[in-house]
Amino acid sequence: MKPVTAMSSASPSVAMVAALTFSGCAWSAGGGFAEIKPTSALTVKLAMSKGRIDNSGRWITNNGYAITFDGGAIAFATASVALIGGSSGSGGIAFSPARPPAGYSLCHAGHCHRTDGALIPYAEVEADLIRGAGGVATRSVAALVWDFAGTAVKPAQDTARSLTGCTPSCFLPRGTVAGADLTLTALTAAGTAEALPGSPALSSGKLAWTLGLKDPLTFRGNVIQAIDRDNSAAFKLDGTLALSDKLFDGIDWAAFASAPRIAVESSPAALTAVKTNLAQSKWTPSLKAHN
């Protein structure tokens, strides 16, 4: 499935981006050119659009079923963000608004017109070029981890956590960060499903279910930030994951056999629907200098 693309702030010149290379720590053992601060926060939102929640607080799907949750929430264990470093290769990168890159028709006023009609900010165009252009190498320079174990993610509420740790460390080498890719580990939930009038009835009237997604899902996020002596020595990586309220759309609950409690992932069709819907969530990272 396609990862989600997001943008961030601060865009250095492309010439500078192409010239920088990751050369490792330059200050002392365990140090680097910059540090990610422990106050970096990751927020998970589950905003519900109009008509998604009924008067009883049930989550309404697009095919006429009402979902409730045990504890009223979804949960996942950890969330990690890989900061992607771009280094120049043969040929470097060339981006000029006067010469739109492949896939764009016009660049002006701080954004480019993509051929599918979307307006893409210059920073995101640059990040895409760094991460995807020929002759440009990218690699993870640090993995930031947030521990969400035991945390309830509830509809219409924001859930935020501070940074737990970094691998191999929270220090960054010299270079340019050109991406912040979020990976979710296991996502779990449990509850019941009921058919609304006009939808195929459930054999048991109310179907108890569990959901356990074990395959990691990665959302791609673009950021542009030079890490060198001319910039801040400390940064915050804040990000927001807006979970899709379509998560349970398209599941044929009536197709499940009657049982004390069914596992949604036991149905290949239902599992595919959940994964496809989850991929529509939006990840928005922001890497900014921290004083």
Task: Please explain how this structure is put together.
By secondary structure, the protein is mainly β. The protein has one domain. It contains 3 helices and 21 strands. It has helices at 14-19, 122-132, 268-278; strands spanning 34-36, 41-45, 59-60, 65-69, 75-76, 78-87, 104-108, 111-114, 119-121, 137-147, 158-162, 165-167, 171-172, 175-184, 187-195, 206-213, 217-219, 225-227, 234-242, 262-263, 282-289. The strands form 4 sheets. Strands 1, 2, 11, 13, 19 and 21 form a 6-stranded mixed β-sheet that branches. Strands 3, 4, 5, 15, 16 and 20 form a 6-stranded mixed β-sheet that branches. The longest helix is centred in the middle third of the chain and has 11 residues, at 122-132. It is globular. The two termini are 38 Å apart. Mean pLDDT is 82; it is low at 1-30 and 88-92.
Key phrases:
291 residues; mainly beta; 6-stranded mixed beta sheet; globular; disordered N terminus
